[in-house]
Design brief:
Oligomer: single chain
Distance between the termini: 73 Å
Number of helices: 4
Low-confidence stretches: none
Structural class: mainly alpha
Largest sheet: none
Mean pLDDT: 82
Shape: rod-shaped
Number of domains: 1
């Protein structure tokens, strides 16, 4: 996404898209494979967390700008829903469930070591058993 689009949205005070990106990033940071949080949020609670963070962003917008609470909370819930839909579209559908890596913030997966077992060599009958 081009930075000028985000800056243009911020200049026009259209915070829903920016808020949905921030909410998606925060929820991504609270997954099991990151170094950032002291705890990880289980997968079943992440959509609820996204909606709660969206509602929080709407509340902050209402306090900061003075827009009506109903409009602010609706915008917050839309931003949380967009974060959930963005995850479903980008991560689940387009990337086959592989999360977007966050350089420096995600833990490196442990290398998978697979032992290759070959069949045992049969004993040579001409060699005496010691």
């Amino acid at each position: 996404m081009d930075q000028s689009v985000i800056l243009d949205l911020a200049a026009k005070h259209q915070w829903v898209l920016i808020s949905s990106i921030v909410v998606g990033f925060i929820v991504r940071l609270l997954k099991e494979d990151t170094r950032f949080p002291p705890f990880a949020v289980p997968a079943r609670w992440r959509p609820v967390l996204a909606l709660a963070l969206g509602a929080l962003s709407g509340s902050l917008q209402a306090v900061a700008t003075g827009i009506p609470w109903r409009d602010a909370l609706l915008g917050g819930l839309v931003s949380g829903s967009l974060a959930i839909a963005g995850h479903g579209t980008i991560v689940e559908a387009l990337r086959d469930g592989k999360d977007i890596p966050l350089p420096g913030l995600t833990t490196q997966p442990a290398p998978v070591i697979q032992a290759v077992l070959e069949p045992a060599t049969p004993r040579d009958p001409s060699v005496p058993i010691a």
